[in-house]
Amino acid sequence: MITNRIAITLSVASLFVGAIVGVLVMQLLHRDPAFLVTYADPRHAFDVGDDRVLAGWADNVFTGKVVAKAGQEAISTSSKFPITLWSVEVTSNIKGNLTGAITVVQQGGYLEDANTLTLMEGDALLAPDHEYLFVSRGRQGRHWVVPAYGDIPFMDGSVEGNASLRDRWQTAVKNQLPDAWKKHLEYTPNRD
What residue segments make up the domains of the chain, in order of their start? Predict the structure, then answer.
């Protein structure tokens, strides 16, 4: 009788230990990759650092508030590079006449299968409930922004910072160079 109890107890204990070891082995074998942040180096065909050239390229220069993330997809059928779609409520126009909620396309996003956030160098993902000045070009009902130069966050909600940013882009639109971007001007980062 005691032998049967010991045998049953050892069997139950063996099953319990086996289950724990099995779970641990499964976790090790199916471990998610570590979270990574990667940065892609943007290549521009023209000098996006010159506001006048960028304003000439743009269909629209406007301010807007990001309402929510509206989706994510690959930039093309041949590339897994992500683009993130944002619902943005237009608050004012400097160039163009956008109204209401529109879809803004930002290059970069989260790749779930690789557990990786992929961003364009110098361009953080937009944030819901934040306001930005956008410089965009429309294509198929979406408004594409140039990384880091076409999605400029308002500075801490500062009226002075926002006014100077609007003034800067009103001047750029007034003095825009509409065909300069077609001439493949060399991009010059960190210019004053």
Answer: 1-31, 38-183
